[in-house]
Amino acid sequence: MVNDLTTHPHKHGPIRFGVIGSGYRTGAFVRIAERLPDRFTCEGVVTRTEARADEILENWQVPAYTDLGTFLERHPVDFMITSTPISVTPDVIADLVGREVPVLAETPPAKDVESLRSLWSTVGGSGLVQVAEQYPFAPGNAARRALLDTDVLGRVTWAEVSSTQWYHAVALLRQMLGIGFEPATVSARTFTLPVVDPQTRAGWAEDLKVVDRSTTVATLDFGDRVGLYDYTDNQVRNPVRANRMVVRGTHGELVDDHLTRLAGPKTPLESDLRRLRTGEYLDFEAPDLYQIGDGAQVLYRNPYYGACLSEEDIAVGTVMERTGHWVRDNAEPPYPLASAAQDQLIALAIKESVRTGTEVRTDAEPWAR
């Protein structure tokens, strides 16, 4: 059992985790634990070299090891996070599952369809693997999903995501459409178009030179529901390329945070999802997100209010905390390996359709059964 206390002794107190890998995402996991010490304890990081271990200890102030076995002997954890390159992630997951350690794996869990099938064959039956797909748990997306659950749009038939890429965007499309493992017919094209690129992961650029960036557009036909994927390279960090989400149903439409619905004969109504934030003019609280509502009801409340986290970190923290409760309390799994494998399967179909210029159909895979 995942929540067997002989393996996971920390039934109470902060959720304890370790991280394998020391890249960009690892910093987020460590930072969230620092900001929420009553919820999380980062027991340490496992990395490849002694030099990197020394850097982790100095910069992040957490224990660092180069040997997984030694780390696990000294630090009983609720679960391990894999923050590793995609080329090695399946092997790292399999190693942890072989040690009966619950896993929260980096996205995506494997690089291609054959690797996904192999990973599922190796660990799928263990019930020990979740995946750190955070975007369905982002405050705005969680609020939209809560609104859809009220059936205000009627039967949802269409969703469009233009904000994040590949498997992340597919996860959002599936969330908004209520899609599980249904087959999809994918048709995609890529266009190269000029745009300024003023910001990257490294920060703001001084040079505002116009560069060519690829825009990929794809339709995902699930039969009775359709998803539209639209992403321009580096869009997630480009302030001149807005994020968009559209959800359409039989009785209404949600465009980003603006709702249009038919309440009855001759009665179209409009409303907006609004964020209540603290720390703005003449509010003496720290800047933070408190809740999101539609004027009639609260659709989302920040579980970490007071920690002043970014919405990205709120989403990641939510996945981490739900993984902890899944391990300790046999709670609902936050994002099972099967769901993440399906996201990657469809993302790979988008790439294949671009490459071949033809439609690509996904069929039921072993994780869908």
UniProtKB/TrEMBL annotation:
One of its GO terms (molecular function) is nucleotide binding. Signal peptide: none annotated. This is Predicted dehydrogenase. Residues 15-126 form the Gfo/Idh/MocA-like oxidoreductase N-terminal domain.
